[in-house]
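Entry:
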Amino acid sequence: AILILAMFIASIGLNMNSTAVIIGAMLISPLMGVIMAIGYGIATYDTAYVRKSFLKLLFQVGFCILTSTIYFYISPISTASSALFGGLAGIIGITRKEKSNVIPGVAIATALMPPLCTAGYGIATHSLKFFSGALYLFCINGVFICLSTFIVLKFIKVPAKQYVSIQVLRRQKFYLAIIGIITIIPSVYTAYQSVRDNVEKAQATSYINEYFNYDDRQVVAYHIREDSKTFEVVLIGKTL
């Protein structure tokens, strides 16, 4: 129930372009606990616990995407208040025996709720780009939360539930390395594209400021055309 209410809050925040509301949703969301539980299960070689936690995560992700999809299907841009859902989530949280989100700062930094909310938006608007990009962001955040949990628990030597052989240890390291590589490769390419775009933007800005922007003339827009290798500018003021 708290998860669904948190998704409603995140959806409203996305709809209304409100950063504060989205941060509130991340604080309420219990998503991070189950991801850390998977890391704990891997570190202690408790396969039953890993399986149980992973199934919980799948259900939570499914409910999140379903909730945000329904919201964006039925709700146009509106001034719906997130306070109602926040109040409901707070009351439910107070009445629960389990206390969650002991590290809310980390929960905000890892940003688990907004990507799932955006994935639902992608489904509602039939945008594969939004859906796939948001889901990948959630996956990469989830994998590294799990991985960091595993590393810390190994470092502090949490006792394993059962004895495992050297072969099992090697297999575990191999699988973790493969998952890490598969997760990282697309992000490396995305980072390269981002750096290249920023360099192009910086060069374009420098060129514009040097040759086009004067007291009697200003550039209001520009566009780099990769296909024809041309640089187009839109000017106002004195004719060039």
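The mean pLDDT is 80.
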